[in-house]
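Complex 316.
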Amino acid sequence: MSEPVVGFGAPIRLEYNYTPGSASSRYLRSIAEGRIVGQRCPNCEKVYVPPRGSCPTCAVPTAEEVELAHTGTITTFCVVNLSFYKEIEPPYVCASILLDGADIALFHLIQEVPEGREVTMGMRVEAVWVDESELAPTLESIKYFRPTGEPDASYDSYKEHL
Amino acid sequence: MAETVETQTAGLSAPHVLEYPYTRSVGPVIGRFLGGLRDRKIEGIRTKDGRVLVPPAEYDPVTSEALSEFVEVGQAGVVKTWAWVSEPRPKHPLDRPFAWALIQLDGADTALLHAIDAGDESKMSTGMRVQVRWREETVGMITDIECFEPEAAS
Ligand SMILES: [Zn+2]
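Predicted structure with zinc ion bound:
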């Protein structure tokens, strides 16, 4: 009898051409300038980042642009123990980060967590950008977020954004 | 990083690739079937009512009993149905027009899906006989069968 096969690599690859649309294109261009720009709903006043051009709750266009801080609060996070990228040594943390002034959390990598300190909900973080010469219209222009060392934000300050 | 381009409508556009590095576990029955291909033989499995399934299944489709009686089948068979691919895509098994076909091998009671290198759609017909073309190097994958080809006139 032949030696049986146990398994084989079966990668699945999907090739898209991603067109973000006008609102997200403006946001990505702001990223290329080292800025983070969202949009505010004229009705409920929620600030969306990245902006989609309209408010999904109120169904109205979101024309007003709002520049956001480069600091925020971790609302939730996960510890990644598998290696997906050669550049990042596991374990590492990916987190939902509510930028100050925003009502939607961004998902990004957390690095430079001080020895002996664990990532927590409410942890205050700041964006670490690539060198100015490498800025491009992609969220990869922010390399990662790192703890600021400020006291944790109170649960009440982000509980509506989980 | 992907290259981002400006579109005519002043929006951005960029290639975006999503890739999942899956490893597939095949189980004992398909594992033996694939191992057989590496040795250039094709094995099916016999059901309780005596039919031979190719590719083999772990359980009887009628009685649900576990199956274990492997049966080697022929390396040629009959085309049961087919579809012509006039413009192959990058991941297709052949880089020239070919047919996807269900092929019932000699000694089998079910049909196997594979590609047929027929050259031209006019050479294809339901009921035609085809034979295996093995890849030069076999590794225990369904692609060890490079494709099927119209049976050589004897
Ligand atoms: Zn709204």
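Chain A has one helix and ten strands.
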